[in-house]
Design goal:
The chain has 417 residues and is mostly helical. The chain is 60% helix and 9% strand. The longest helix has 38 residues. The chain starts with 6 loop residues before the first helix and ends with a helix. Pfam families: Fic.
């Protein structure tokens, strides 16, 4: 299979030839006017030395075999992830999701240099799950990502939705100096600096931002372009417009994740920023190449790279889920060896899941356990009296009353593995 040649590589191959410039232009014209070329209606001015050049190009891509193959891999992986999740009990499944949610939010913060800790995010998740009204950092971010699991998404049908997402996700983390100073977005131009070198400039005014984002909304809602390709082109264009002084990366990745969670499985979606963090140089290089004047807005290889990053994240999820299924088997085996009553075995099974599949909230409140197992407090207290005396469980806190699997049983489990 022939490797897809970028317009940039064609430029450097041809430019020194006597008719090099004509060859380069002919190559672009042929590619752009190809009958299978997909045109988006989104236009960019490519970036040279951090500034937009005068020439404008429409974003397009070719549906090459590599894209088709990657889509097949993504869809196959997604079905596998759904299948593996179905083999896990509910508490373990929930813990795995929340653990990955912490990784995702930590990663999207790390990419932007925003300080956050796993402990802090764990406390926010606990607050969100308990519906505590306490005002905490990242609470809006956690709430929005957590919605993916219950099929709640941010469908964008109007430009104002971008500002609403910004307000919910990052406004509390942005300094006053970097807060939007227009009606919805930034009023002035912005230049993105890497060290001392300018690498990008966003749309020059709020009027231009509104115009560009209106086109993006129309593009995001078209049915004429396949979902994954549309998702990744939208992700690029949003970052190209750069509607805010700060917070574009986090809001842009959230929008991409929200879209992905509708088209693949929610675990693949919430792992996207983690996969980007693990492939950060590849990610930023794809943006740089997409904006390069020599590539004239050809998004083909940008799509390929984003798909490869998504696949790498899916592979990581599959490995984690297979390990989790193996661990569930070991937990069942260990409980069976204890020769407990059916009720005590079921209590331990739930508490093992809570403790083993997340590095936070390792105990369950008695109230939560009563709800999960559909038993009375009196019955649960009677069981816990025996289990505490046998060192099977231990108390985490008195208010609210919370139990977890004993350290002794946890140590025995992992000594065998």
């Amino acid at each position: 299979m022939n490797k897809y040649k970028t317009l940039k590589s064609q430029y450097f191959e041809s430019i020194e030839l006597p008719d090099g410039e004509k060859q380069v232009q002919d190559f672009y014209n042929h590619r752009f006017s190809n009958e299978v070329t997909v045109k988006t209606g989104l236009e960019i001015k490519p970036i040279k030395r951090g500034e937009r050049i005068r020439d404008k190009y429409e974003i397009f891509y070719l549906p090459i075999v590599n894209i088709s193959n990657l889509k097949e891999i993504i869809n196959t992986n997604s079905r596998l992830i759904v299948s593996l999740l179905s083999k896990l009990p509910e508490v373990a499944k929930s813990q795995i999701f929340l653990n990955n949610l912490i990784d995702e939010i930590q990663s999207t913060n790390d990419i932007e240099g925003v300080r956050s800790t796993r402990k802090e995010l764990s406390e926010v998740i606990e607050s969100v799950l308990s519906k505590n009204k306490k005002d905490l950092r990242f609470k809006g971010l956690v709430e929005q990502y957590n919605n993916f699991r219950v099929d709640e998404y941010n469908k964008i049908t109007d430009v104002s939705e971008f500002r609403k997402i910004y307000n919910t996700l990052v406004s509390d983390e942005v300094s006053k100096d970097d807060a939007p100073d227009g009606e919805m977005f930034r009023a002035k131009g912005v230049e993105i600096i890497d060290g001392s070198k300018p690498i990008h400039s966003g749309s020059p005014s709020e009027s231009a931002i509104n115009n560009d984002l209106s086109k993006l909304v129309a593009f995001m809602n078209t049915e004429e372009i396949p979902a994954l390709e549309k998702c990744f082109i939208s992700h690029y264009f949003y970052e190209y417009v750069h509607p805010f002084y700060d917070g574009n990366g986090r809001t842009g990745r959230f929008i991409a994740c929200s879209y992905l969670s509708r088209k693949v499985d929610y675990m693949s979606a919430i792992n996207f920023s983690t996969a980007i963090m693990e492939n950060k140089s590849m990610y930023y290089h794809a943006f740089s190449e997409m904006s390069d004047p020599h590539n004239k807005a050809d998004a083909t290889m940008f799509i390929v790279t984003m798909m490869r990053i998504l696949v790498s994240g899916q592979k990581s999820i599959v490995e984690k889920l297979n390990d989790s299924i193996n661990l569930i088997g070991q937990i069942r085996k260990q409980i069976a060896e204890l020769n407990l009553s059916k009720m005590q075995s079921e209590i331990l099974y739930v508490l093992f899941q809570k403790r083993c599949f997340g590095d936070f909230l390792d105990g369950l409140t008695d109230q939560e356990l009563m709800k999960i197992m559909n038993i009375s407090r009196y019955k649960l207290n009677k069981e816990f009296e025996q289990m505490e005396s046998s060192d099977l469980v231990q108390i985490v806190s008195e208010n609210p009353k919370t139990h977890k699997v004993s350290d002794k049983l946890i140590n025995q489990l992992f000594e065998k593995n």
